[in-house]
Structure formats: structure tokens, C-alpha cells
Amino acid sequence: MNSLRKTLHTLAAAAEQAAGPKGPWQPDFHLVPPVGWLNDPNGLCRFRGEYHVFFQYTPFEANCGLKFWGHVKSQDLLRWEQCPVMLCPDTPFDLHGVYSGSALCEEDGLYLYYTGNVKHDGPYDYIRSGRESNTLLAYSPDGIHLEWKRLLLRNEDYPAGLTRHVRDPKVWKQEGRYYMLQGARTEEEEGVALVFASGDRLHWEHINTLRTEEPFGYMWECPDLVELNGRQFLLACPQGAAKQGPGFENPYACGYFPLSGDFRGECSLGELVPLDWGFDFYAPQTFLDGKRCLLTGWLGMPDAEYTNPTTAYGWQHCLTVPREVTCAGDRLQMQPAAELEALRGERQEWTFSGEETREAPAASDILITCEGSLSLDLSGACLRAEPGMLTLTLPEGGYGRTVRTAPVGTLRNLRILADVSALEIFVNDGETVLSTRWYPEDRRRELVLRGTGRAAVYEMKALEVTRWDPDGKSRRPE
Ligand code: FRU
What we know:
By secondary structure, this protein is mainly beta. 3% of the residues lie in helices and 53% in strands. The strands form six sheets. Strands 23, 24, 25, 26, 27, 28, 29, 30 and 31 form a nine-stranded antiparallel β-sheet that branches. Strands 20-1-2-3-4-32 form a six-stranded mixed β-sheet, with no helix packed on it. Strands 13, 14, 15, 16 and 17 form a five-stranded antiparallel β-sheet that branches. It has one helix at 3-18, and strands spanning 36-47, 50-58, 68-74, 79-82, 98-106, 109-119, 131-140, 148-153, 162-174, 177-186, 191-198, 205-210, 219-228, 231-239, 255-261, 267-269, 273-274, 282-288, 293-298, 315-316, 323-328, 331-336, 344-360, 364-378, 381-386, 388-393, 403-408, 413-419, 422-427, 432-437, 445-460, 464-467. It has one helix and 32 strands. Residues 39-40, 56, 67, 99-100, 115, 167-168, 221-222, 282-283, 302 line the site of beta-D-fructofuranose. Residues 39-40, 56, 67, 99-100, 115, 167-168, 221-222, 282-283, 302 line the site of beta-D-fructofuranose (FRU).
């Protein structure tokens, strides 16, 4: 281990050790950083029978800062081990942040592709000058220990006509070749996704650039490709998209372009469909675990103007639960991974007609089937379903957030994963999803339903998160 890496490892571990209680808004079943700041999920994969979740992580500050890759792993998506930081900013090529990237699982170990961020001192705008966006590869033989890092591509190696903003490599293997997507900002201020190919995972050739007919924003962050039922979808987080209205009310957009043709050659992108219509959803990443396509997103939003009250407790942000992605025609749908049902405890179930109020646990899985219009209040979060439109308002506990709307035909069912300070709302079997953080005063929850239908509320048990044990005693393979 180089000595800077050793020092950063030690400092990160010390910050984690010194972390105080997370306070009243610590979620029960959403993954949070051990201490400090979290943003994008990175390197999601199932490697040698274990799920690995890496994430953009600043252990030293709750308000963003120098980025590391934090790391947790699990066999069942329920019992997690908090591992030592995986990647530190410890080389001249990633000195100002190990930015987002992805994992490739191979026979001999885990290959992690990421962006090394370097900012030079000087009178630069850091868009066209003063910044390096390096593509690096880190290799771990066992998914825990890092053996080496290698610089693969520098700005000079990317195609011509780009600014210095190129990042977030998503790598996968398909039909015997390796492919990589990267998000980029062109000199004409247009967001694009670059496609690279490689035969040996080390040498990469630019083979295509994916763009919309009309420019859609100035930068596409975190591109990803989903292929389901023979259809391809390009996921991206466009910054600066001029589109307004439902689905485009957050500082940056996040969704998917249905892709006609093949990403490697002739193809065109349809209109961006928001993946999530709530206040907090960004930088999602997908992976195949052998039986399905799973997605995890950051339950947050860059540059959102609100004060997150958890910063007073030294931490900020969480990830969404893992969601299974399926495809219906040219639309994607998302549902919570089935594993989460194992967290369900006590259940109340009732039919309602008119207005009914019940107590609900602070962490719950709420299932509602209904006929026509519905109005639901859950301790300061209100959902109103009228024909054609679903409205989420946060009159209390929103800390500055107000209202989001989503077009929803006829409401048939709702599933709300309601955690202590997070809501993930799956509408009509996941055709539409709204996610948000919210911060009710206490753990008491009052659920008010107005309409006609049937409700079931399960208490949700907390995820188990333990510290990774280097001797492997705390968790034996089952
Ligand atoms: C998206 C993003 C990525 C970048 C990372 C840095 O939220 O801006 O484009 O790699 O976060 O933390």
C-alpha cells in the first residue's frame, strides 16, 4: 500500500470510529454513510456470491468534500458489512477525488473503473481548463483489498470537441467484448454519452457518441445502459436541460432515453423519461445479478436548496433500496427488490371507505389498492391522486421542499416504503416512482386515508449493519 493510501485509510477509519449517534432521522432500512457525506452509488455488483455497494463518500465532512469510495457488502441485501474504504484519492491522477464509476466481476477479481478528478491551482474555469478527468482502473483480487491502480485514459485520449468534463465510466462485458460508457460535456455545451470498446479491459477505443437530435442539457452524468426484452435504454443525469414541468423540477434531471438501434452503431435516442418524480433521486446505477436487473440510486439531489437537518449529527444522505427494473414496451418500471419483504414484521390490514386514521410504525411498508381518487397523509407528507395526476406535498418536515407532481393515469395501487426520514413511493406496480427525504418531528406516524380501498401496513425491521471482520468470523457463508 502506498503511504498516502495508508494514511488516508487510517484517517477514514478513525473518523468512522469517532462518529457519534446519527440522531433522530437515521433511517432503519436505507443505507447511510458510516459518517460524513454520501452521494452516488458506485461499483454495484454481485461478486463471488456477495453484493457489493460502493458509494461516493467523504468521511471527514457532512457537507461534501474530498471523495473516496465507501464500501458495504452483503449476501442477502439485508445484513450488511461495513468494509474499509475501497478507493482513496492517493495518486497524482485522482488526487482531488475518486469520482463515480463501476465494477467488472472477473474470474480473478474485481476491476473497478472510475474517474480520477484533478484540479490545478490557477485562474481556471475548471470546465475548459484547469481540470483533469482521468479514467482509472483499480484491481482487487478479493473485493476488499486493493492491489493496484492504473491510469487508462486522460483527457487527451478522449475524442476531440469535448470540454474537460468527461466522467463516470460504466463498464460491462457483452458477447466477448468490454464496453464502457462515459458522460461528457462538449465544447458546444451539449451533454453526450461516449461509447468505448476493448478486447482486454485495459486498452479502450472510442467507437460511438450517443446524443439526442436536439441538445438536451450541457452535461450527462452517470450514463448507464439497460437492455431488457431486447430493448436498449440509455440512463443518464442531464444537467442544464431546458425542459420544465413535472419530472424536471429538480436542479438536474435523471431518467432514460429509449434507444432505437444499437448503442454500438446506428442508433437514435427518444425523449428522456424521468426515472423518478420525487425530490431526491440521482445517479442511479444498474447491474445484473444473474437473475434480474437491479438498480440503486442516490436518495439525494446535487445543488438542491434545502438544509438537511442530519448534518447537525455529522452525516448526510442515503441510498435508495435496491430496485428491480423491468420493461413494459418502451417504458421501464421499478419495484423494491423482493428480499426487502423479509424485513416485514407485524401487519395491520383493513378496508377503508371515507376518511380513516391509523397509527403506523416509523419504518413501514404500506400497500394500498384503491378505486379512483385517493388522498393519503403520513405525518407531514401528503399524496393526492386525482385522475391523471399524483401530487406529493411536504407541508411539514420538508425543510424547504414543497410540491412534486407525476402524471399517473388511473391510480390502482401504491406501495410506500416509509422509513424514518425517507419515502419511496411506487405507483401502479412501479410504473411511476417518487422518492424523497423528509424529516418528521418524531417517530410517531399517523396515516390518514381518504377514499375507498384496502390497506396493509407492515412494520419494517432495520437492516443489520456490522463492521467487516478481517478474520471473517462475524459472517460465515451460509
Ligand atoms: C454525480 C456526480 C458524478 C461525479 C460524482 C462526484 O452526482 O457529480 O458525475 O463522478 O458525482 O462525487
